[in-house]
Amino acid sequence: MADLDMINRDPNNINDFVGVQFEDVLAEPEGAHSIDCVWKASFFCFNIWKNFFYKLATLCCGMCIAAEWGCEFARIAFTHVWIVTPLFKVLEINCGCLQKFWALCVHCCCDPCCEAFGLLFGAFRKD
Fold first, then answer.
1. What predicted TM-score, i.e. pTM, was given to this entire model?
2. Rounded to an integer, what distance in angstroms lies between the CA atom of residue 93 and that of residue 90?
3. How many Cα neighbours within 13 Å face the side chain of 25?
4. How far apart are CA 111 and CA 106, in angstroms?
5. pLDDT, tens digit, 9 for 90 and up, residues 54-75
């Protein structure tokens, strides 16, 4: 098992789109600024409550949800290993037989016509 990186918890950047910093959510345009103490207090309150509720939610639900997703991906892996891949192998074998049969039918029907047209149009040579 690989070591768990406790600093960078998104090493593959799969959640880069989730902007939950104060600056990603709240912004005052030029000409519409609140009082400095209100803006600073808003920044403080936003971060305190965001961190508190995130930690509370992960404490209450995080392990159960992680277990559910672990089971889901285990089911997907099981299905692909034991059902999907063998099914595709069966289809590949059966389609190989159908491919040979189709090629035989096409060659039997089309080759004589193509040869006849080739001989016919081969007679029209420019000398």
1. 0.60
2. 5
3. 10
4. 7
5. 999 999 999 999 999 999 999 9
